[in-house]
Automatic annotation (TrEMBL):
<dbReference type="InterPro" id="IPR042108">
    <property type="entry name" value="GTPase_HflX_N_sf"/>
</dbReference>
<dbReference type="InterPro" id="IPR027417">
    <property type="entry name" value="P-loop_NTPase"/>
</dbReference>
<dbReference type="InterPro" id="IPR025121">
    <property type="entry name" value="GTPase_HflX_N"/>
</dbReference>
<dbReference type="InterPro" id="IPR032305">
    <property type="entry name" value="GTP-bd_M"/>
</dbReference>
<keyword id="KW-0547">Nucleotide-binding</keyword>
<keyword id="KW-0963">Cytoplasm</keyword>
<comment type="similarity">
    <text>Belongs to the TRAFAC class OBG-HflX-like GTPase superfamily. HflX GTPase family.</text>
</comment>
<dbReference type="InterPro" id="IPR006073">
    <property type="entry name" value="GTP-bd"/>
</dbReference>
<dbReference type="Pfam" id="PF01926">
    <property type="entry name" value="MMR_HSR1"/>
</dbReference>
<dbReference type="GO" id="GO:0046872">
    <property type="term" value="F:metal ion binding"/>
</dbReference>
<keyword id="KW-0175">Coiled coil</keyword>
<protein>
    <recommendedName>
        <fullName>GTPase HflX</fullName>
    </recommendedName>
</protein>
<dbReference type="GO" id="GO:0003924">
    <property type="term" value="F:GTPase activity"/>
</dbReference>
<keyword id="KW-0460">Magnesium</keyword>
<dbReference type="Pfam" id="PF16360">
    <property type="entry name" value="GTP-bdg_M"/>
</dbReference>
<comment type="function">
    <text>GTPase that associates with the 50S ribosomal subunit and may have a role during protein synthesis or ribosome biogenesis.</text>
</comment>
<dbReference type="Pfam" id="PF13167">
    <property type="entry name" value="GTP-bdg_N"/>
</dbReference>
Length: 601
């Protein structure tokens, strides 16, 4: 019987945290779930708070057998002590957290899995959105890992089936693909590699079973690849048993019909794929509406033939709307749904307009992060908010997936020794960004257009960094904000071996940072300060108690360095815009320009 004590390194942990760790024993598991989502989230939250790994060991009935803080794998594991013969699995699985955002198993994790013959080993990244992986043994000496995948998919992973099969015969090779995953075959024309399309397909949850490209300048009008290549494709589709064909360019209805004739597959294009990913990621009302509208608009002229029939039956990539709903397939319904979405979107936009004018009143400069998808915008934003932010709305994610961020998020950042800014994270850009997407996201991108300063984040380690920069600049031009002040921020320099040749890239101003380690952040701040127009001045005021509303305004719109309750009023030292200084001057409240509080006499 377990004694419900917590093992491991509790030294220096606050009592409140120790109690939360002890409470983990109370989470009831369900037999089918790999772990209870509530348990996983609480473990991740504790790790975020204390920076230490948390591990729980769970038996096959879903009961918790051990809770460990710190480096779990080096702690003696009583949970697995009652193991059966060495040829069998222990009947215990380990679920543990990794501080930060790393959702993959370490070498140590794999080795613990083997040494303890665990049913499986689960890793949850402590940083939201808590992506993770799971690994199973494939023989006494080997293991294989599935993931990273979303927290949601991970918690519901069908571990039992896997484990029962393994237990019977220790150990058959595990199924490499889940039944639910679609097998995608990629096609494209021209010189561009299909790597990015593959990444997109993976992001959408498919496995890629093959690719074929044709070196021609532009697609054939009727057959896309040309009729010779089409035969090759038909064969390849059958050999690989693909069920989804994805083209790297937008397809016309007749191309879709032709390709569908080659094999029993569903045919979609790059735009549909991107919109599908968007549909899975959007989380605000506006984001969802924007995606749905773009999907409907893109779909309407393409509702033909087999695709229609297949999508009516089955679902799958390209047929999913925001919120996992199946997209409408009936033309008439589609039109009326479009009108409804447009109407609702209008309302949401009016609300956004109001927010924007409120922000204008607050007079804080807006700094927008833009960049190619996966460049590290959210990670940078996350880092800045954690270190210098004002607590408030969270859910910024840094996920190694394309389009992790869809909805614009605004956060307040207090630059050390400087001013306060609003930081906006935005949707990532991509090559051949579908027109439907640019249109649908115009409202979101307007946030960028309205920004006082744009930070263009570049993944300096990406081999196509320079093309990606061009794409981003092109989109900025399309949404008419290429005239805004732009600072280029080369990110991920922690992974760089040599220096960046800034001269040859011809961008200025530019800074180099690592959103992961925080390297270069001060230079970034200096650069931001330099780019933003000087704002207000630092003064000290003494506001009488019967004018408390002024103090509230100062706090909302200025940058307060110090404040103090005095017998005759509230003394505040702050950087204020002229607009706020004038009324104070009229009333004679200004006690000094600058200076420190407490030095008066
Ligand atoms: N090594 C290293 N990795 C980083 C750094 N910044 C971000 N990453 C990783 O790059 C991946 C993408 O980061 P995100 O912050 O999600 O990128 P994003 O630009 O917000 O992407 P989208 O929202 O998809 O447009 C994640 O796996 C991050 O952990 C960095 O400075 N160094
Ligand atoms: Mg992001």
């Amino acid at each position: 019987m377990s004694t419900q004590e917590v093992k491991g390194n509790l030294q220096g942990l606050a009592n409140a945290l120790i109690r939360r760790v002890e409470n983990l024993w109370q989470f009831q598991g369900e037999r089918e779930l790999l772990f209870s989502p509530d348990l996983g989230r609480e473990m991740a939250a504790i790790t975020e708070a204390c920076g230490r790994e948390i591990a729980v060991f769970i038996d096959r009935r879903g009961q918790i057998r051990d809770v460990i803080v710190g480096d779990a794998m080096t702690v003696a594991l009583s949970a697995t002590r009652d193991r059966r013969s060495s040829s069998r699995l222990s009947g215990i699985r380990c679920v543990h957290t990794h501080p930060g955002a790393s959702p993959a198993l370490s070498e140590v994790d794999h080795s613990a899995l083997r040494q303890l013959s665990l049913d499986c080993m689960v890793v949850i990244a402590a940083a939201p959105p808590h992506a993770g992986s799971v690994a199973f043994l494939t023989s006494a000496t080997e293991s294989c890992e599935f993931g990273p995948m979303s927290f949601h998919r991970l918690s519901a992973y069908d571990w039992l089936q896997q484990v029962q099969a393994l237990d019977k015969q220790f150990i058959p090779p595990p199924q490499m693909t889940e039944a639910a995953q679609e097998k995608a075959f990629l096609i494209g024309v021209g010189e561009e590699s299909l790597d990015e399309l593959e990444q997109l397909a993976l992001s959408a949850g498919a496995v890629v079973v093959g690719r074929l490209s044709q070196k021609i300048a532009k697609p054939f009008a009727g057959t896309y690849l040309g009729s010779g290549k089409a035969q090759e494709l038909s064969l390849a589709l059958q050999v690989t048993d693909a069920d989804l064909l994805i083209a790297d360019d937008e397809l016309t209805p007749s191309q879709i019909r032709f390709l569908e004739g080659l094999a029993p597959v569903r045919v979609i294009d790059r735009t549909t794929l991107i919109l599908d990913i968007f549909a899975q990621r959007a989380c605000t009302r506006e984001g969802k509406l924007q995606v749905e509208l773009a999907q409907l608009q893109y779909r309407l002229p393409r509702l033909t033939g087999k695709g229609l029939a297949l999508s009516r039956q089955g679902g799958g990539i390209g047929t999913r709307g925001p919120g996992e709903m199946q997209l409408e397939t009936d033309r008439r319904h589609l039109r009326s749904r479009m009108t409804a979405v447009e109407r609702e979107l209008d309302q949401v936009r009016q609300h956004r307009q109001r927010l924007r004018s409120d922000r204008k009143k607050a007079d804080l400069p807006v700094v927008a992060l833009v960049g190619y998808t996966n460049a590290g915008k959210s990670t940078l934003s996350h880092h800045l908010v954690n270190a210098y932010g004002t607590p408030g709305r969270t859910t910024l994610n840094g996920e190694d997936k394309l389009f992790a961020t869809l909805d614009p998020t605004m956060r307040k950042i207090n630059i050390p020794g400087g001013r306060t800014i609003l930081l906006a994270d935005t949707v990532g850009f991509i090559r051949k960004l579908p027109h439907a997407v640019v249109k649908a996201f115009r409202a979101t991108l307007e946030e960028v257009a309205a920004a006082d300063l744009i930070l263009h984040i570049v993944d300096a380690t990406h081999e196509e960094a320079s093309q990606q920069m061009q794409t981003v600049l092109q989109v900025l031009k399309e949404i008419e904000c290429d005239h805004r002040p732009i600072v280029t921020v080369f990110n991920k320099i922690d992974r760089l071996t040599g220096p960046i040749d800034l001269l040859s890239l011809g961008v200025a101003p530019a800074v180099e940072v690592s959103a992961r380690t925080g390297q270069g952040i001060q230079e970034l701040f200096d650069c931001i300060e330099g780019q933003l127009a000087p704002q207000g001045q630092i003064i000290q005021v003494l506001v009488p108690y019967d004018h408390g509303e002024y103090v509230a305004q100062i706090y909302a719109q200025g940058q307060v360095f110090a404040s103090e309750y005095r017998p005759d009023g509230i003394a505040v030292q702050a950087r204020l815009p002229e607009r706020l200084i004038a009324p104070c001057r009229e009333r004679g409240w200004i006690t000094s320009d600058g200076g420190t509080i407490g030095s008066h006499g």
